[in-house]
Amino acid sequence: MINRDISSRLAAGHGRRVTQLGDAAARWGGQVPEDPGITELADLLEAAARVPDRPGGPGHTTRALLAGAVEDLRAAARLGGLLPAVTLWHLQRAIDQEHTAHQQTVPAQRQEHRR
């Protein structure tokens, strides 16, 4: 009973995080498929990290954070279903890094619009 409850909670958390990462990839301009896999999301965020810097933008730090998110996604993909709690941790780290990268671009975008 306890194992089943933990497994279902981990599966639900996995699904929520994949959805969040899909939304994040779309925010960076990625064409997210209907039911993306972790590797597809890593590829989309990796493409976003390759976008050239805008003058006055956060640049290197944003790319480094997105690259970190990609590394965590690739680690989660390698683990597959072997260690659900560890996979979930990598997914959450990827979300956190992407969120920080996005937060850094928002002030830069606002400055561009004011010019």
What do you see in this structure?
This protein is mainly alpha-helical. It contains four helices and no strands.
Outline:
Helices cover 77% and strands 0% of the residues. The chain is mainly alpha-helical and 115 residues long.
The mean pLDDT is: 87
Please tell me how large the radius of gyration is.
Answer: 16 Å
Give the overall silhouette: elongated
- Per DSSP, what share of the residues sits in E-state strands of 2 or more residues? under 5%
Kindly, what is the distance between the CA atoms of the first and last residues, rounded to a whole number of angstroms?
60 Å
Class derived from helix and strand content? mainly alpha
Biggest beta sheet attributes: none
The DSSP helix count reads 4
Low-confidence stretches: none
Can you give the helix content as a percent range?
over 70%
Write down the secondary-structure element order. Answer: HHHH
Give the strand tally. 0
Task: Throw out a few tags for this protein.
115 residues; mainly alpha; 4 helices
Topology diagram in text:
Layout: H1 2-27, H2 38-49, H3 60-79, H4 84-114
Helix pairs in contact: 1-2, 1-4, 2-3, 3-4
